[in-house]
Amino acid sequence: MTSWLTKQKKQTLWDLSSEAGLRQNDDLRKDELVENLDTYLRANATRLSRNATFEPYYGTRRTPFKARSSSAAGAISEDGELKSVVKARGRRTTQVKQDVDDDGHDAGYSSRAVVPASTTTIARTPGRPRKQPQLPASPADVADEIEYATGRMYAGIDSLYERSGIPDKLYSIREACSSVVGVQMTFLLLEALALQRQLLGWTYAGISLPSVSILGFDTWAIPLYVPDFFHLLTAEFWSTSLLWTSTSVVIPMIFAYFYNLSTRDVKRHGTVVTVARYRADPLIFSVAKALTTIVVYEREYTFGLFDSAARANVNDAVFLGFRGMLLGSYVGVVAALYEAAQRK
Prior knowledge:
Layout: H1 2-6, H2 10-20, H3 30-43, H4 45-48, H5 55-59, E1 75-76, E2 82-83, E3 94-97, E4 112-115, H6 139-163, H7 166-177, H8 180-200, E5 202-209, E6 213-214, E7 217-218, E8 222-227, H9 235-258, E9 263-268, E10 271-276, H10 282-298, H11 308-317, H12 322-343
Antiparallel strand pairs: 1-2, 3-4, 5-8, 6-7, 9-10
Helix pairs in contact: 2-3, 8-9, 8-12, 9-10, 9-11, 10-12
């Protein structure tokens, strides 16, 4: 019962839930695990009581044997003697038929003599146990078996999923993306991929994936394309890449490093020191990137340092041109302000 479950460790409760086919959330406390498992074991007692794992749980819930009342043990006759009274199901008094003579009259005895069971000892040879007939399963038993098999299947899938390491990888990716730096890096990565896809170009590799038959249908061969790395030797590639890197990464990073609004004074060991939450302020980075994008790509001020053809290549490569770069900067500003509001 619940007291037996309470004595178990939390990991043991997880193992018992998996054995019973009960799925429980990872963030539950021990008392919640005990309550959910106890409710599940009560509801599925018909099926799980046959499992040796839960014998301590169901063994404490059995009804103790009740002794029969003294009235069933014996009775006193009119002569004051104690007579045995047997109240067993299906047991009857032994009857002895009299012998009948040739004339059909009694041989001096009554037609039937009743012999008390307590005064007659009958030797019985143990017989072979009867084989119980196999009765068809009831709908409730079938439903319990289906529920048990389904629970075991889900438990096996969950165990395989946990052992694959996929949850840890997904959690790490989620943790990296759930920050203002992750949001800004996502937009920078999309811009870089779009730019390099246009600058390098894609050429046919000379091979194709072979066709396969799926469900009776033949798929067509898929040609493979790879980046043309010979464009790395051209001046167009480097001029365009350096322009985008300067306006989207280098110049905003310089401003974000020197104009860092995330710094604050902290008292340590009696001394006031300045501590920065970020080495480069994400809010200033997004603002500086937006201003640089407007000046260079929208107003076309190159200051004699950037090629107009390189500027045109960046506008053509990035989705929505310089407006797409501005959109990424605005999202970065909103993310930085939201994070600052949460800290306050």
